[in-house]
Amino acid sequence: MFTSRLRQARLEKGYSQRALAEKLHISQQAYAKYETGASSPNPEMLGQIASLLNVSVDSLLGTAHLLTKRTIPVLGSIPAGVPIEAIEDILDYEDLSPEEAGDGYEYFGLRIRGRSMMPEYLDGDTIIVRRQEAAETGDDAVVMVNGDDATFKRIQRGLGGVTLMPLNTAEFTPTFFTNAEIAALPVRILGICVELRRKKK
């Protein structure tokens, strides 16, 4: 509620009701009504309160999460040479978490196909991928190799190159690329998996 968020913000800033009221040029009784819900500040007063408490109006009103809501497409595949934002093979849409929505990164969803990343990732799972061009050992990354459709594998880096590791090594073989091959083919990181979302069937 607004009243509890207002009180918490005031306490965190170290103001008493009287001290904050004085800065707002109103009586303590008038301010106290804001925290009890007996009355509500007008937009101008609300802006002054937010400024003094060093918080946003949206955080006081509890609407900050609404402003940062973002929906991303879940792709069925990533064909070579097609920018992700231009891909039309959209299977679904997913809402980002408030933290992801407000962190400034770009994201896309990808539907897992096949068995190479079992048992951690199952056929039909959706992963949330943060777009970036670098990945470290242990990252599960979406990778484009030699202009083929993107593949999803665990990264293992070494001095001589990088290995794309399937988790299901009983059925699938790791693929190693030298540093020269990475540059020549090329081998490109499109992003890393930051979240797995699995729906009940």
Describe the structure.
By secondary structure, the chain is of the alpha+beta class. It has 2 domains: 2-66, lambda repressor-like DNA-binding domains (434 Repressor (Amino-terminal Domain)); 71-197, Umud Fragment, subunit A. It contains 8 helices and 9 strands. It has helices at residues 2-13, 17-24, 28-36, 43-53, 57-61, 64-67, 98-101, 179-184, and strands at residues 71-75, 90-95, 107-111, 126-131, 140-145, 151-158, 161-165, 175-178, 187-197. A 9-stranded mixed β-sheet has the order 2-1-3-4-9-5-6-7-8. The longest helix has 12 residues, at 2-13. The two termini are 37 Å apart. The model has no long low-confidence stretch (mean pLDDT 89).
Quick tags:
201 residues; alpha+beta; 434 Repressor (Amino-terminal Domain); 9 strands; nine-stranded mixed beta sheet; elongated
Topology of helices and strands:
Layout: H1 2-13, H2 17-24, H3 28-36, H4 43-53, H5 57-61, H6 64-67, E1 71-75, E2 90-95, H7 98-101, E3 107-111, E4 126-131, E5 140-145, E6 151-158, E7 161-165, E8 175-178, H8 179-184, E9 187-197
Parallel strand pairs: 1-3
Antiparallel strand pairs: 1-2, 3-4, 4-9, 5-6, 5-9, 6-7, 7-8
The end-to-end distance, rounded to whole angstroms, is 37 Å
Rg over alpha carbons: 25 Å
Q: Which CATH-level-2 architecture of the largest domain?
A: Ribbon
- Mean pLDDT reading: 89
Q: Identify the CATH homologous superfamily of the largest domain.
A: Umud Fragment, subunit A
Summarize the entry for a quick read:
By secondary structure, the chain is α+β, with helices and mostly antiparallel strands. Helices cover 29% and strands 28% of the residues.
